[in-house]
Amino acid sequence: MDHEMFKGKAFKVLKFMYESKTKRASLPSQEELDKYLPLSQTNWNLISAPPPSSITLTWIGHSSFLVQIGGLNFLTDPVFSNRASPVPFMGPWRYAKLPFGVEKLPKIDFVVISHSHYDHLDLDTVRKLGNGPVWYVGLGLKEWFLGEGITNVVEMDWWQSVKFGKSNVEVEDSEPWLLALSSSLLQITCTPCQHWSARTPFDACKTLWCSWVVRDAGGPTFFFAGDTAHCPVFEEIRRRVGKIHCSLIPIGAYLPRKFMKDHHASPEDAVQIHLALGSSWSVGCHWGTLRQKALEHVLDPPKVVQAELERRKMKPTDFEVMKHGETRGIVVQGGMVSKI
Prior knowledge:
Elements: H1 9-19, H2 30-36, H3 44-48, E1 54-61, E2 64-69, E3 72-76, E4 110-112, H4 123-129, E5 134-138, H5 142-147, E6 153-156, E7 161-164, E8 169-172, E9 186-191, E10 211-216, E11 221-224, H6 233-241, E12 246-250, H7 257-260, H8 267-277, E13 281-285, H9 300-311, E14 319-320, E15 327-333, E16 336-339
Parallel strand pairs: 3-4, 4-5, 5-6, 11-12, 12-13, 13-14
Antiparallel strand pairs: 1-2, 1-15, 2-3, 7-8, 7-9, 9-10, 10-11, 15-16
Helix pairs in contact: 8-9
């Protein structure tokens, strides 16, 4: 992965934010948001008792999902705040309704963080979750957590793996997809993607950005792309990891392409990532929640995904989006995948 392309990115972001202020599409009215981004009734019964050999997803918003696999609960890039910003009075704000608060979550066993940007790493949410779950983060990010009093942190490099059980966490450097797993363990692998990181204009690319694979022993495999552009690494992930049954792939904040193409996938790119991974079922993330500086209309990403599926003569159910608060999932039995 060529990290040189991201040098000076923080300045370019600030320049883009200034220039795009008058160019981005207007936000839909509340009536339109209620119609096209409705709040779904969360299926707490399914969350409390998911079927065996299943993966269930509940969309909290943006890239934040409650994921259940192998009898365990984890979160992807949890953000429960009204703003994704270091200050409460400016920065990307949440226009979509929050389906529920942190207090409604079931016991969270672990959290995976893709990178340090504020719309993926939220201090207030981190403080609320505290040291209850294990936090899996990329290289260089553990220090930030320790500074906030969070010590239950495992820092990982690309292709490093851990075995997660009820009693121990062990970091492995060997080929993660070959590790022997007992039925009481999950395997969590830090995998590459193409993005960048920063909390300030002065720490760009100081910490690692990553995607994540979570594999249930003898059961399904889940992939979280984090924030990423399309790049050849997804074919490599498929070769190394094997079958992926469910993926979260970003579809928003993709225009203008001249600026975004190196670090944000377009909806068309997202479908290509889905195909490169060989994912049985993919769900779009990183859209429909926060008022960001990208130029596309906030309701466009799912429409473009569906148009790309039609162009490729793929099933509309291969790559879908969810409603805020909605709970959906799959069951994997005998190599067959069925929707819940």
